[in-house]
Amino acid sequence: MIQTFQRTTTERLLLRAVRDSDMDVVFALHADPETNRFSASGPARSREEVRTLLSLWLDDWALHGVGYWLVERRDAPGDVVGLGGVRHRELEGRRVLNLAYRFMPRTWGSGYASELARAAIALARQHLPEVPVVAIIHPDNLASIRVAERSGMRLDRLIDYQGMPSRLYVPAGS
């Protein structure tokens, strides 16, 4: 496991690997229609569906040493504001690190997603430079597009992802 990925901080956030005990907050994020408006699968319909996701993410940490973080505010320990990070995926026949971020609506506009994205991209470049970082974004998700751009990413091209047209972002200079 890459220890730096396991637990790291930014100016305002604690980013730590997801744990089994995070089930309730992960369910709250994934069952909320507002936070899943642009998700291909839509909001989670059951705790079992979210349990499957959480198990997948725990496997990412065990197998690859990187994965999604639970995000807490440093000035309010225990105040979970979202989740995100990078995880290994296959895209068009090649291994990539997919950057994702999902935050509680009460935190939207705070800059937390951009802060997480910049940290994830920097750690990936440092520890896994051979694996490209990408962000796959629904074309109507303007907030997510702004986060990608503020984090130093640029639009590479349009792709079909899980049956939906999507915008593929890569770090500028890639």
Topology (elements, then pairings):
Elements: H1 3-6, E1 7-9, E2 13-17, H2 23-31, H3 47-64, E3 68-73, E4 80-91, E5 94-103, H4 112-127, E6 133-137, H5 142-150, E7 153-161, E8 164-171
Parallel strand pairs: 5-6
Antiparallel strand pairs: 1-2, 2-3, 3-4, 4-5, 6-8, 7-8
Spatial strand arrangement across the major sheet: 1-2-3-4-5-6-8-7
List the secondary-structure elements in sequence, H or E: HEEHHEEEHEHEE
Round the Cα radius of gyration to an integer and report it.
15 Å
What is the level-2 CATH architecture name?
3-Layer(aba) Sandwich
Q: Describe the biggest sheet?
A: 8 strands, mixed
Poorly predicted spans: none
Shape: globular
By secondary-structure content and strand pairing, the structural class works out as alpha+beta
What proportion of the residues is helical, as a percent range?
Answer: 25-40%
C-alpha end-to-end distance:
26 Å
What's the CATH class, please? Alpha Beta
Tell me the number of structural domains. Answer: 1
Overall number of strands: 8
Kindly report the average pLDDT value. 93
Beta-strand share of residues: 25-35%
Q: Could you say what the CATH topology is called?
A: Aminopeptidase
Task: Identify the CATH homologous superfamily.
Answer: Gcn5-related N-acetyltransferase (GNAT)
Helical run tally: 5
